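Re: the multi-chain job from yesterday

Posting the exact lines I submitted so nobody has to dig through the queue logs.
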Amino acid sequence: MPDNMTLGEKLVQQGISRRTFLKFCASMASLMALPPSMAAEMAEKLAKLRRQSVIWLSFQECTGCTESITRSHSPTIESLIFDAISLDYHHTLMAASGTAAEHAREQAMKENAGKYLLVVDGSVPAKDTEYYSTIAGISNYDMLVDTAKGAMAILSVGTCAAYGGIPKANPNPTGAVAVSDIIKDKPIINIPGCPPIATVMTGVIAHVLTLGTIPDLDELGRPKVFFGDTIHDRCYRRPFYDQGKFAKSFDDEGARNGWCLYELGCKGPTTYNSCATTKWNGGVSFPIESGHGCLGCSEPDFWDKGSFYKPLSTGEWGGGQILAAGVAAGAVIGVGAAFAARKRQDKASGGK
Amino acid sequence: MDLLAFAKGPILMWSLIIFVVGVSWRLLGILLLRRKPDYSEPRSNATWWGAVRTVFSRMWMRKEFQSRTAYGAALGYVFHIGLAIVVFFFVPHILFIKDLTGLSWGGLPSGVIYATGVVTMIALIILLIRRFTHPVLKLLSNFDDYFSWFVTTAPVVTGLLAVAHLGARYETLLGLHILSVELLFIWFPFGKLMHAFLFAISRGTTGALLERKGAAT
Ligand code: SF4
Ligand code: SF4
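And the result, C-alpha coordinates for all chains:
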Protein backbone atom coordinates (compact mmCIF):
# COMPACT_ATOMS: atom_id res chain seq x y z
CA MET A 1 0.00 0.00 0.00
CA PRO A 2 1.52 3.30 -1.01
CA ASP A 3 2.42 5.42 1.97
CA ASN A 4 -0.13 8.13 1.25
CA MET A 5 -3.09 5.77 1.06
CA THR A 6 -5.47 5.75 4.00
CA LEU A 7 -6.92 2.57 5.44
CA GLY A 8 -10.33 3.58 4.06
CA GLU A 9 -8.97 3.80 0.54
CA LYS A 10 -7.21 0.51 1.02
CA LEU A 11 -10.47 -1.14 2.11
CA VAL A 12 -12.24 0.13 -1.00
CA GLN A 13 -9.40 -1.18 -3.09
CA GLN A 14 -9.77 -4.61 -1.46
CA GLY A 15 -13.52 -4.62 -2.11
CA ILE A 16 -14.49 -4.56 1.59
CA SER A 17 -17.80 -2.77 2.10
CA ARG A 18 -18.28 0.00 4.60
CA ARG A 19 -20.96 -2.08 6.24
CA THR A 20 -18.52 -4.95 6.89
CA PHE A 21 -15.95 -2.51 8.19
CA LEU A 22 -18.50 -0.92 10.54
CA LYS A 23 -19.45 -4.35 11.81
CA PHE A 24 -15.80 -5.02 12.55
CA CYS A 25 -15.48 -1.69 14.39
CA ALA A 26 -18.63 -2.44 16.41
CA SER A 27 -17.28 -5.79 17.52
CA MET A 28 -13.89 -4.21 18.31
CA ALA A 29 -15.61 -1.49 20.34
CA SER A 30 -17.63 -4.02 22.30
CA LEU A 31 -14.52 -6.15 22.87
CA MET A 32 -12.78 -3.11 24.27
CA ALA A 33 -15.82 -2.30 26.41
CA LEU A 34 -16.33 1.04 24.66
CA PRO A 35 -19.84 2.44 24.28
CA PRO A 36 -21.50 1.35 20.99
CA SER A 37 -21.51 4.95 19.83
CA MET A 38 -17.74 4.75 19.66
CA ALA A 39 -17.89 2.23 16.82
CA ALA A 40 -18.74 4.86 14.18
CA GLU A 41 -16.10 7.21 15.53
CA MET A 42 -13.60 4.43 15.50
CA ALA A 43 -14.47 3.52 11.91
CA GLU A 44 -14.10 7.15 10.95
CA LYS A 45 -10.69 7.47 12.59
CA LEU A 46 -9.43 4.15 11.38
CA ALA A 47 -10.55 4.85 7.81
CA LYS A 48 -8.70 8.16 7.78
CA LEU A 49 -5.63 6.69 9.36
CA ARG A 50 -2.37 6.98 7.51
CA ARG A 51 0.24 4.42 8.14
CA GLN A 52 1.72 4.44 11.58
CA SER A 53 5.37 3.49 11.75
CA VAL A 54 5.94 0.34 13.74
CA ILE A 55 9.25 -1.25 14.56
CA TRP A 56 8.96 -4.85 15.63
CA LEU A 57 11.90 -6.39 17.46
CA SER A 58 12.09 -10.13 17.93
CA PHE A 59 14.44 -11.36 20.63
CA GLN A 60 14.44 -14.73 22.41
CA GLU A 61 11.20 -16.05 20.94
CA CYS A 62 9.70 -18.79 18.82
CA THR A 63 7.88 -16.64 16.25
CA GLY A 64 4.59 -17.99 17.56
CA CYS A 65 3.41 -14.46 18.38
CA THR A 66 4.07 -13.27 14.82
CA GLU A 67 2.41 -16.40 13.55
CA SER A 68 -0.63 -15.65 15.69
CA ILE A 69 -1.01 -12.03 14.63
CA THR A 70 -0.48 -12.57 10.92
CA ARG A 71 -2.52 -15.75 10.72
CA SER A 72 -1.42 -15.93 7.17
CA HIS A 73 -3.79 -18.77 6.35
CA SER A 74 -6.91 -16.60 6.67
CA PRO A 75 -6.71 -12.94 5.74
CA THR A 76 -9.27 -10.94 7.71
CA ILE A 77 -10.01 -7.34 8.54
CA GLU A 78 -7.66 -7.72 11.49
CA SER A 79 -4.89 -8.34 9.05
CA LEU A 80 -5.97 -5.19 7.22
CA ILE A 81 -5.53 -3.21 10.41
CA PHE A 82 -2.13 -4.77 10.33
CA ASP A 83 -1.80 -3.29 6.85
CA ALA A 84 -2.71 0.09 8.31
CA ILE A 85 0.61 0.18 10.04
CA SER A 86 3.87 0.63 8.29
CA LEU A 87 5.86 -2.26 9.56
CA ASP A 88 9.27 -0.75 9.01
CA TYR A 89 11.25 -3.51 10.60
CA HIS A 90 10.33 -7.11 11.32
CA HIS A 91 12.85 -9.91 10.77
CA THR A 92 10.40 -12.52 9.75
CA LEU A 93 8.12 -10.44 7.58
CA MET A 94 10.44 -8.01 5.84
CA ALA A 95 11.98 -8.74 2.48
CA ALA A 96 15.25 -7.01 3.22
CA SER A 97 18.02 -8.72 5.13
CA GLY A 98 21.43 -8.01 6.56
CA THR A 99 22.69 -4.43 6.41
CA ALA A 100 19.68 -3.28 4.40
CA ALA A 101 17.34 -4.51 7.12
CA GLU A 102 19.26 -2.73 9.86
CA HIS A 103 19.33 0.34 7.70
CA ALA A 104 15.52 0.27 7.48
CA ARG A 105 15.29 0.24 11.26
CA GLU A 106 17.68 3.12 11.68
CA GLN A 107 15.89 5.11 9.03
CA ALA A 108 12.47 4.54 10.57
CA MET A 109 13.85 5.55 13.97
CA LYS A 110 15.24 8.75 12.54
CA GLU A 111 12.24 9.72 10.40
CA ASN A 112 9.63 8.98 13.06
CA ALA A 113 11.57 9.87 16.17
CA GLY A 114 9.24 10.09 19.17
CA LYS A 115 6.29 8.80 17.14
CA TYR A 116 6.85 5.18 16.26
CA LEU A 117 5.31 2.28 18.04
CA LEU A 118 7.78 -0.31 19.25
CA VAL A 119 6.55 -3.89 19.37
CA VAL A 120 8.73 -6.48 21.06
CA ASP A 121 8.28 -10.22 21.13
CA GLY A 122 10.68 -12.45 22.98
CA SER A 123 12.61 -11.94 26.18
CA VAL A 124 15.93 -10.15 26.50
CA PRO A 125 19.07 -11.89 27.77
CA ALA A 126 20.46 -9.70 30.52
CA LYS A 127 23.46 -11.90 31.32
CA ASP A 128 26.53 -11.91 29.06
CA THR A 129 24.45 -9.88 26.63
CA GLU A 130 27.07 -9.91 23.91
CA TYR A 131 26.95 -13.71 23.61
CA TYR A 132 23.29 -14.61 23.85
CA SER A 133 21.05 -13.71 20.93
CA THR A 134 22.51 -10.95 18.84
CA ILE A 135 21.18 -9.39 15.64
CA ALA A 136 23.62 -7.97 13.11
CA GLY A 137 26.23 -8.09 15.83
CA ILE A 138 24.09 -5.97 18.15
CA SER A 139 23.02 -7.53 21.43
CA ASN A 140 19.29 -7.71 22.09
CA TYR A 141 19.82 -5.60 25.17
CA ASP A 142 21.52 -2.76 23.31
CA MET A 143 19.07 -2.88 20.44
CA LEU A 144 16.11 -2.62 22.82
CA VAL A 145 17.59 0.28 24.78
CA ASP A 146 18.54 2.08 21.58
CA THR A 147 15.22 1.56 19.78
CA ALA A 148 13.10 2.32 22.84
CA LYS A 149 14.56 5.83 23.10
CA GLY A 150 12.50 7.29 20.25
CA ALA A 151 9.35 5.17 20.71
CA MET A 152 6.05 6.74 21.74
CA ALA A 153 5.00 3.50 23.47
CA ILE A 154 6.06 -0.12 23.67
CA LEU A 155 3.89 -3.15 23.15
CA SER A 156 5.36 -6.23 24.79
CA VAL A 157 3.71 -8.93 22.79
CA GLY A 158 3.66 -12.46 24.18
CA THR A 159 4.52 -13.77 27.62
CA CYS A 160 8.28 -13.76 26.87
CA ALA A 161 8.44 -10.02 26.20
CA ALA A 162 5.89 -9.25 28.91
CA TYR A 163 7.27 -11.43 31.74
CA GLY A 164 10.30 -13.33 30.48
CA GLY A 165 8.26 -16.38 29.52
CA ILE A 166 9.83 -19.67 28.58
CA PRO A 167 13.42 -18.37 28.12
CA LYS A 168 13.21 -17.14 31.73
CA ALA A 169 12.02 -20.54 33.00
CA ASN A 170 14.32 -22.42 35.36
CA PRO A 171 17.32 -22.45 35.14
CA ASN A 172 17.21 -19.37 32.86
CA PRO A 173 20.68 -19.80 31.35
CA THR A 174 20.63 -16.46 29.52
CA GLY A 175 19.41 -14.38 32.45
CA ALA A 176 16.31 -13.57 30.40
CA VAL A 177 14.15 -10.67 31.56
CA ALA A 178 11.02 -8.87 30.41
CA VAL A 179 11.09 -5.60 28.44
CA SER A 180 9.71 -3.76 31.47
CA ASP A 181 12.70 -4.94 33.54
CA ILE A 182 14.97 -2.88 31.27
CA ILE A 183 12.92 0.03 29.97
CA LYS A 184 11.51 2.21 32.72
CA ASP A 185 10.76 5.54 31.06
CA LYS A 186 8.22 4.62 28.37
CA PRO A 187 4.61 3.53 28.53
CA ILE A 188 4.59 -0.25 28.15
CA ILE A 189 1.53 -2.33 27.35
CA ASN A 190 1.87 -6.04 28.05
CA ILE A 191 -0.10 -8.36 25.80
CA PRO A 192 0.87 -11.74 27.23
CA GLY A 193 -0.12 -15.15 26.00
CA CYS A 194 1.80 -17.99 24.49
CA PRO A 195 0.92 -16.78 21.94
CA PRO A 196 -1.46 -13.87 22.51
CA ILE A 197 -4.83 -13.93 20.77
CA ALA A 198 -4.65 -12.14 17.39
CA THR A 199 -7.83 -10.18 18.08
CA VAL A 200 -6.40 -8.94 21.38
CA MET A 201 -3.22 -7.72 19.70
CA THR A 202 -5.09 -5.96 16.89
CA GLY A 203 -7.61 -4.62 19.40
CA VAL A 204 -4.88 -2.99 21.46
CA ILE A 205 -3.18 -1.63 18.35
CA ALA A 206 -6.54 -0.26 17.14
CA HIS A 207 -7.07 1.37 20.53
CA VAL A 208 -3.69 3.09 20.50
CA LEU A 209 -4.13 4.19 16.88
CA THR A 210 -7.67 5.51 17.12
CA LEU A 211 -7.83 6.90 20.64
CA GLY A 212 -4.17 7.82 20.87
CA THR A 213 -4.11 6.70 24.50
CA ILE A 214 -2.81 3.77 26.50
CA PRO A 215 -5.69 1.51 27.57
CA ASP A 216 -6.37 0.95 31.28
CA LEU A 217 -3.84 -1.58 32.56
CA ASP A 218 -3.94 -4.02 35.46
CA GLU A 219 -1.07 -4.37 37.95
CA LEU A 220 0.74 -6.68 35.54
CA GLY A 221 0.57 -4.07 32.78
CA ARG A 222 -2.16 -5.84 30.77
CA PRO A 223 -5.13 -4.02 29.21
CA LYS A 224 -8.02 -4.58 31.60
CA VAL A 225 -10.56 -4.92 28.81
CA PHE A 226 -8.93 -8.11 27.62
CA PHE A 227 -7.33 -9.34 30.83
CA GLY A 228 -9.88 -8.22 33.42
CA ASP A 229 -11.50 -11.61 34.03
CA THR A 230 -10.10 -15.04 34.62
CA ILE A 231 -10.71 -17.83 32.13
CA HIS A 232 -12.66 -19.57 34.93
CA ASP A 233 -14.93 -16.50 35.39
CA ARG A 234 -16.08 -16.78 31.80
CA CYS A 235 -15.69 -20.49 31.15
CA TYR A 236 -18.71 -22.27 29.72
CA ARG A 237 -17.79 -25.34 31.80
CA ARG A 238 -18.19 -23.34 35.00
CA PRO A 239 -21.64 -24.76 35.87
CA PHE A 240 -20.01 -28.21 36.04
CA TYR A 241 -17.33 -26.85 38.38
CA ASP A 242 -20.06 -25.49 40.64
CA GLN A 243 -21.96 -28.77 40.55
CA GLY A 244 -18.80 -30.69 41.42
CA LYS A 245 -18.74 -32.57 38.10
CA PHE A 246 -15.15 -33.12 37.00
CA ALA A 247 -13.55 -35.10 34.18
CA LYS A 248 -11.02 -37.51 35.70
CA SER A 249 -9.20 -38.34 32.49
CA PHE A 250 -9.15 -36.89 29.01
CA ASP A 251 -11.18 -39.77 27.70
CA ASP A 252 -13.72 -40.65 30.35
CA GLU A 253 -17.46 -40.20 30.50
CA GLY A 254 -17.03 -36.80 32.18
CA ALA A 255 -14.65 -35.55 29.48
CA ARG A 256 -17.13 -36.64 26.82
CA ASN A 257 -19.90 -34.81 28.66
CA GLY A 258 -17.84 -31.64 28.70
CA TRP A 259 -17.37 -31.53 32.49
CA CYS A 260 -14.93 -29.20 34.21
CA LEU A 261 -11.20 -29.88 33.67
CA TYR A 262 -10.03 -28.72 37.13
CA GLU A 263 -8.91 -32.20 38.22
CA LEU A 264 -6.92 -32.55 35.00
CA GLY A 265 -4.90 -29.47 35.90
CA CYS A 266 -6.84 -26.54 34.40
CA LYS A 267 -5.30 -23.25 35.56
CA GLY A 268 -8.31 -21.20 34.43
CA PRO A 269 -9.12 -19.95 37.96
CA THR A 270 -5.84 -18.07 38.25
CA THR A 271 -5.37 -17.05 34.62
CA TYR A 272 -6.42 -13.68 33.23
CA ASN A 273 -7.03 -13.71 29.49
CA SER A 274 -9.95 -13.47 27.09
CA CYS A 275 -9.76 -16.92 25.51
CA ALA A 276 -13.18 -17.85 26.91
CA THR A 277 -14.87 -14.78 25.39
CA THR A 278 -12.84 -13.70 22.35
CA LYS A 279 -11.83 -17.25 21.53
CA TRP A 280 -9.26 -18.28 18.96
CA ASN A 281 -9.04 -18.56 15.19
CA GLY A 282 -11.71 -16.02 14.44
CA GLY A 283 -13.94 -17.13 17.29
CA VAL A 284 -13.95 -20.84 16.45
CA SER A 285 -13.16 -22.16 19.95
CA PHE A 286 -10.55 -22.02 22.69
CA PRO A 287 -8.36 -24.63 24.38
CA ILE A 288 -10.87 -25.63 27.06
CA GLU A 289 -13.55 -26.01 24.41
CA SER A 290 -11.19 -28.39 22.62
CA GLY A 291 -10.91 -30.51 25.75
CA HIS A 292 -7.64 -29.36 27.32
CA GLY A 293 -7.29 -27.37 30.51
CA CYS A 294 -5.83 -23.86 30.55
CA LEU A 295 -2.04 -23.80 31.02
CA GLY A 296 -2.03 -20.29 32.45
CA CYS A 297 0.07 -19.07 29.51
CA SER A 298 -0.69 -15.36 30.03
CA GLU A 299 0.63 -15.35 33.61
CA PRO A 300 4.22 -14.65 34.73
CA ASP A 301 6.34 -17.78 35.25
CA PHE A 302 3.61 -20.10 34.02
CA TRP A 303 6.21 -22.64 32.95
CA ASP A 304 7.65 -22.98 36.45
CA LYS A 305 4.40 -23.22 38.34
CA GLY A 306 4.43 -27.01 38.44
CA SER A 307 2.84 -29.56 36.19
CA PHE A 308 0.17 -28.51 33.70
CA TYR A 309 -1.67 -31.67 34.70
CA LYS A 310 -1.68 -31.27 38.48
CA PRO A 311 -4.80 -29.68 39.97
CA LEU A 312 -4.40 -26.09 41.09
CA SER A 313 -5.08 -26.97 44.72
CA THR A 314 -2.15 -29.36 45.05
CA GLY A 315 1.18 -28.31 46.52
CA GLU A 316 4.39 -27.62 44.65
CA TRP A 317 7.01 -28.93 47.01
CA GLY A 318 9.40 -31.77 47.76
CA GLY A 319 6.93 -34.64 48.15
CA GLY A 320 5.99 -37.46 50.47
CA GLN A 321 9.48 -38.67 51.35
CA ILE A 322 10.20 -35.47 53.25
CA LEU A 323 7.06 -36.03 55.32
CA ALA A 324 7.97 -39.65 56.03
CA ALA A 325 11.34 -38.38 57.27
CA GLY A 326 9.43 -35.82 59.37
CA VAL A 327 7.34 -38.56 60.98
CA ALA A 328 10.51 -40.50 61.77
CA ALA A 329 12.23 -37.45 63.23
CA GLY A 330 9.16 -36.65 65.33
CA ALA A 331 9.03 -40.25 66.52
CA VAL A 332 12.66 -40.10 67.66
CA ILE A 333 12.02 -36.87 69.58
CA GLY A 334 8.83 -38.38 71.04
CA VAL A 335 10.58 -41.56 72.21
CA GLY A 336 13.35 -39.43 73.69
CA ALA A 337 10.87 -37.21 75.50
CA ALA A 338 8.97 -40.19 76.85
CA PHE A 339 12.19 -41.82 77.98
CA ALA A 340 13.24 -38.69 79.85
CA ALA A 341 9.81 -38.47 81.43
CA ARG A 342 10.01 -42.10 82.53
CA LYS A 343 13.34 -41.41 84.17
CA ARG A 344 11.81 -38.52 86.04
CA GLN A 345 8.89 -40.74 87.05
CA ASP A 346 11.30 -43.40 88.28
CA LYS A 347 13.25 -40.87 90.27
CA ALA A 348 10.11 -39.44 91.83
CA SER A 349 8.90 -42.86 92.87
CA GLY A 350 12.31 -43.85 94.15
CA GLY A 351 12.80 -46.58 91.58
CA LYS A 352 9.63 -48.46 92.52
CA MET B 1 7.85 -15.93 43.20
CA ASP B 2 4.32 -14.66 43.78
CA LEU B 3 2.32 -15.14 46.95
CA LEU B 4 0.46 -18.19 45.65
CA ALA B 5 3.63 -19.94 44.47
CA PHE B 6 5.29 -19.14 47.79
CA ALA B 7 2.32 -20.53 49.71
CA LYS B 8 2.13 -23.68 47.57
CA GLY B 9 5.87 -24.28 47.64
CA PRO B 10 8.37 -23.74 50.45
CA ILE B 11 5.90 -22.62 53.14
CA LEU B 12 3.68 -25.61 52.49
CA MET B 13 6.65 -27.92 52.81
CA TRP B 14 7.91 -26.44 56.08
CA SER B 15 4.50 -26.19 57.68
CA LEU B 16 3.78 -29.84 56.86
CA ILE B 17 7.17 -30.88 58.23
CA ILE B 18 6.50 -29.02 61.49
CA PHE B 19 3.04 -30.58 61.60
CA VAL B 20 4.17 -34.20 61.23
CA VAL B 21 7.24 -33.82 63.44
CA GLY B 22 5.15 -32.11 66.12
CA VAL B 23 2.26 -34.55 66.00
CA SER B 24 4.40 -37.67 66.10
CA TRP B 25 6.54 -36.19 68.87
CA ARG B 26 3.53 -35.40 71.02
CA LEU B 27 1.66 -38.63 70.35
CA LEU B 28 4.62 -40.88 71.07
CA GLY B 29 5.74 -38.74 73.98
CA ILE B 30 2.35 -39.30 75.60
CA LEU B 31 1.73 -42.91 74.59
CA LEU B 32 5.10 -44.08 75.88
CA LEU B 33 4.73 -42.52 79.32
CA ARG B 34 4.85 -45.05 82.13
CA ARG B 35 1.53 -45.65 83.72
CA LYS B 36 1.26 -45.89 87.48
CA PRO B 37 0.86 -49.48 88.61
CA ASP B 38 -2.61 -50.11 90.05
CA TYR B 39 -2.51 -52.78 92.81
CA SER B 40 -6.20 -52.78 93.55
CA GLU B 41 -8.41 -55.70 92.60
CA PRO B 42 -10.05 -54.92 89.19
CA ARG B 43 -13.86 -54.85 89.36
CA SER B 44 -14.02 -55.44 85.62
CA ASN B 45 -11.59 -56.78 83.04
CA ALA B 46 -13.38 -55.25 80.08
CA THR B 47 -11.18 -52.13 80.18
CA TRP B 48 -10.94 -51.90 76.36
CA TRP B 49 -14.67 -51.88 76.09
CA GLY B 50 -14.85 -49.17 78.75
CA ALA B 51 -12.34 -47.13 76.80
CA VAL B 52 -14.21 -47.36 73.49
CA ARG B 53 -17.56 -46.72 75.17
CA THR B 54 -16.30 -43.57 76.84
CA VAL B 55 -14.89 -42.17 73.60
CA PHE B 56 -18.46 -42.18 72.29
CA SER B 57 -20.51 -41.63 75.45
CA ARG B 58 -18.74 -38.35 76.11
CA MET B 59 -19.83 -37.06 72.75
CA TRP B 60 -23.20 -36.40 74.28
CA MET B 61 -24.04 -33.98 77.11
CA ARG B 62 -24.72 -35.21 80.64
CA LYS B 63 -28.41 -35.04 81.37
CA GLU B 64 -27.85 -33.18 84.60
CA PHE B 65 -26.19 -30.25 82.91
CA GLN B 66 -28.08 -30.37 79.65
CA SER B 67 -30.00 -27.14 80.12
CA ARG B 68 -26.79 -25.25 80.78
CA THR B 69 -24.52 -26.84 78.17
CA ALA B 70 -26.91 -27.44 75.27
CA TYR B 71 -26.36 -24.09 73.57
CA GLY B 72 -22.57 -24.24 73.59
CA ALA B 73 -22.52 -27.91 72.69
CA ALA B 74 -24.89 -27.39 69.76
CA LEU B 75 -22.71 -24.60 68.39
CA GLY B 76 -19.66 -26.79 68.88
CA TYR B 77 -21.31 -29.57 66.92
CA VAL B 78 -22.32 -27.22 64.13
CA PHE B 79 -18.83 -25.93 63.56
CA HIS B 80 -17.08 -29.28 63.99
CA ILE B 81 -19.37 -31.01 61.50
CA GLY B 82 -19.29 -27.96 59.24
CA LEU B 83 -15.51 -27.94 59.24
CA ALA B 84 -15.38 -31.66 58.51
CA ILE B 85 -17.70 -31.22 55.52
CA VAL B 86 -15.80 -28.24 54.13
CA VAL B 87 -12.35 -29.70 54.70
CA PHE B 88 -13.03 -33.22 53.50
CA PHE B 89 -15.73 -32.85 50.85
CA PHE B 90 -14.68 -29.84 48.78
CA VAL B 91 -13.16 -31.27 45.61
CA PRO B 92 -10.06 -29.01 45.53
CA HIS B 93 -9.34 -30.10 49.14
CA ILE B 94 -9.78 -33.76 48.26
CA LEU B 95 -7.33 -33.29 45.38
CA PHE B 96 -4.84 -31.72 47.79
CA ILE B 97 -5.15 -34.70 50.16
CA LYS B 98 -4.96 -37.15 47.26
CA ASP B 99 -1.75 -35.55 46.05
CA LEU B 100 -0.32 -35.78 49.55
CA THR B 101 -1.48 -39.24 50.61
CA GLY B 102 -2.86 -41.01 47.57
CA LEU B 103 -6.27 -41.33 49.24
CA SER B 104 -9.39 -39.89 47.67
CA TRP B 105 -13.17 -40.05 47.81
CA GLY B 106 -16.18 -38.32 46.27
CA GLY B 107 -16.86 -34.63 46.85
CA LEU B 108 -19.96 -32.48 47.27
CA PRO B 109 -21.25 -29.72 44.95
CA SER B 110 -19.47 -26.44 45.55
CA GLY B 111 -22.72 -24.68 46.50
CA VAL B 112 -23.25 -27.06 49.41
CA ILE B 113 -19.68 -26.42 50.57
CA TYR B 114 -20.06 -22.62 50.37
CA ALA B 115 -23.29 -22.70 52.38
CA THR B 116 -21.72 -25.00 54.97
CA GLY B 117 -18.71 -22.68 55.15
CA VAL B 118 -20.93 -19.70 55.93
CA VAL B 119 -22.78 -21.61 58.68
CA THR B 120 -19.46 -22.78 60.13
CA MET B 121 -18.08 -19.27 60.15
CA ILE B 122 -21.17 -17.90 61.91
CA ALA B 123 -20.98 -20.64 64.56
CA LEU B 124 -17.30 -19.87 65.14
CA ILE B 125 -17.99 -16.16 65.54
CA ILE B 126 -20.85 -16.77 67.99
CA LEU B 127 -18.58 -19.07 69.99
CA LEU B 128 -15.93 -16.37 70.21
CA ILE B 129 -18.48 -13.82 71.37
CA ARG B 130 -19.67 -16.32 73.93
CA ARG B 131 -16.14 -16.83 75.16
CA PHE B 132 -15.79 -13.08 75.60
CA THR B 133 -19.09 -12.62 77.37
CA HIS B 134 -19.59 -15.77 79.44
CA PRO B 135 -18.05 -14.93 82.85
CA VAL B 136 -16.73 -18.41 83.62
CA LEU B 137 -15.56 -19.20 80.10
CA LYS B 138 -13.82 -15.86 79.95
CA LEU B 139 -11.95 -16.64 83.12
CA LEU B 140 -10.91 -20.05 81.84
CA SER B 141 -9.69 -18.85 78.44
CA ASN B 142 -6.06 -18.27 77.70
CA PHE B 143 -3.94 -17.37 74.68
CA ASP B 144 -4.11 -20.94 73.40
CA ASP B 145 -7.91 -20.78 73.19
CA TYR B 146 -7.97 -17.52 71.31
CA PHE B 147 -5.12 -18.36 68.99
CA SER B 148 -6.54 -21.81 68.25
CA TRP B 149 -9.84 -20.11 67.44
CA PHE B 150 -8.01 -17.73 65.14
CA VAL B 151 -6.08 -20.36 63.18
CA THR B 152 -9.30 -22.39 62.78
CA THR B 153 -11.43 -19.47 61.67
CA ALA B 154 -8.93 -17.77 59.36
CA PRO B 155 -8.92 -20.55 56.73
CA VAL B 156 -12.75 -20.58 56.72
CA VAL B 157 -12.92 -16.82 56.22
CA THR B 158 -10.12 -16.65 53.62
CA GLY B 159 -11.59 -19.65 51.79
CA LEU B 160 -15.00 -17.99 51.58
CA LEU B 161 -13.43 -14.71 50.47
CA ALA B 162 -11.52 -16.57 47.77
CA VAL B 163 -14.58 -18.25 46.30
CA ALA B 164 -16.51 -14.98 46.48
CA HIS B 165 -13.60 -12.99 44.95
CA LEU B 166 -13.99 -10.45 47.73
CA GLY B 167 -11.38 -7.89 48.68
CA ALA B 168 -8.52 -8.86 46.37
CA ARG B 169 -7.71 -10.86 43.27
CA TYR B 170 -8.51 -14.56 43.41
CA GLU B 171 -4.89 -15.74 43.29
CA THR B 172 -3.97 -13.43 46.19
CA LEU B 173 -6.92 -14.65 48.25
CA LEU B 174 -6.08 -18.24 47.40
CA GLY B 175 -2.49 -17.60 48.50
CA LEU B 176 -3.74 -16.13 51.79
CA HIS B 177 -6.11 -19.06 52.25
CA ILE B 178 -3.27 -21.56 51.84
CA LEU B 179 -1.03 -19.51 54.16
CA SER B 180 -3.74 -19.46 56.82
CA VAL B 181 -4.04 -23.25 56.61
CA GLU B 182 -0.27 -23.46 56.98
CA LEU B 183 -0.47 -21.40 60.14
CA LEU B 184 -2.96 -23.96 61.41
CA PHE B 185 -0.59 -26.81 60.51
CA ILE B 186 2.22 -25.11 62.40
CA TRP B 187 0.19 -24.33 65.52
CA PHE B 188 -1.65 -27.65 65.53
CA PRO B 189 0.77 -29.88 67.49
CA PHE B 190 1.57 -27.26 70.11
CA GLY B 191 -1.82 -26.00 71.17
CA LYS B 192 -5.31 -27.21 71.96
CA LEU B 193 -5.94 -28.20 68.35
CA MET B 194 -4.02 -31.36 69.19
CA HIS B 195 -7.28 -32.53 70.80
CA ALA B 196 -8.24 -33.74 67.33
CA PHE B 197 -5.85 -36.64 68.02
CA LEU B 198 -5.74 -36.62 71.80
CA PHE B 199 -9.46 -36.62 72.59
CA ALA B 200 -9.72 -40.33 71.85
CA ILE B 201 -6.62 -41.15 73.87
CA SER B 202 -7.62 -39.13 76.92
CA ARG B 203 -11.22 -40.32 76.91
CA GLY B 204 -10.10 -43.90 76.34
CA THR B 205 -7.68 -43.74 79.24
CA THR B 206 -10.33 -42.30 81.55
CA GLY B 207 -12.86 -44.87 80.34
CA ALA B 208 -10.48 -47.76 80.92
CA LEU B 209 -9.64 -46.53 84.43
CA LEU B 210 -13.24 -46.05 85.41
CA GLU B 211 -14.23 -49.39 83.94
CA ARG B 212 -11.55 -51.09 86.00
CA LYS B 213 -12.95 -49.41 89.10
CA GLY B 214 -16.43 -50.46 88.10
CA ALA B 215 -17.64 -46.87 87.92
CA ALA B 216 -20.10 -45.49 85.44
CA THR B 217 -18.40 -43.67 82.53
S1 SF4 C 1 -12.52 -26.03 32.83
FE1 SF4 C 1 -11.04 -24.70 33.95
S2 SF4 C 1 -11.70 -22.63 33.60
FE2 SF4 C 1 -13.40 -23.96 33.02
S3 SF4 C 1 -14.67 -24.12 34.89
FE3 SF4 C 1 -13.25 -25.82 34.95
S4 SF4 C 1 -11.49 -25.05 36.14
FE4 SF4 C 1 -12.68 -23.26 35.49
S1 SF4 D 1 -6.74 -21.14 27.69
FE1 SF4 D 1 -5.07 -20.51 29.11
S2 SF4 D 1 -3.23 -21.55 28.36
FE2 SF4 D 1 -4.76 -21.64 26.72
S3 SF4 D 1 -4.29 -19.91 25.44
FE3 SF4 D 1 -5.85 -19.23 26.90
S4 SF4 D 1 -4.68 -18.38 28.66
FE4 SF4 D 1 -3.25 -19.54 27.41
